[in-house]
Design goal:
Helices cover 4% and strands 49% of the residues. The protein is mainly beta.
Length: 129
């Protein structure tokens, strides 16, 4: 069974840190670009960060630059999102997603497109002020 399972969400105070994990099963991540999206209450889902499988290049939406870091461990088929200096506006449900690398033209374009081959179920991140 193909699936992505996220973990690591929770409640944290403003300025704190969390690390989200997303583990793939039923397939290997080697040839997939990876991404984290989020959806806050009453808002559309947005691409937070993406990473190419070809060269490891990354994209971050402006609001998380220098605070969030996307990474992968292909040996464990796991994707991570390290989130530091969290702010209340980071509160959202966070989803990991993957797409076959050959399907994307530019990383940034994919990161804002919300297209994916597989999605995780989402994990809640709440940042208190």
């Amino acid at each position: 069974q193909v699936q992505l399972v996220e973990s690591g969400g929770g409640l944290v105070e403003s300025g704190g840190s969390l690390r989200l994990s997303c583990t793939a099963s039923g397939f290997t991540l080697d040839y997939y670009a990876i991404a984290w999206f989020r959806q806050a209450p009453g808002k559309v889902r947005e691409g937070v960060s993406c990473q190419s499988s070809r060269d490891g290049s990354t994209y971050y939406t402006n609001s998380v630059k220098d605070r969030f870091t996307i990474s992968r461990d292909n040996a464990k088929d796991t994707v991570y999102l390290q989130m530091n200096s969290l702010k209340p506006e980071d509160t959202a449900v966070y989803y990991c997603a993957v797409i076959a690398q050959w399907k994307i033209t530019t990383l940034q374009r994919w990161c804002i497109s919300e297209e994916a081959d597989y999605w995780g179920q989402g994990t809640q991140v709440t940042v208190s002020s």
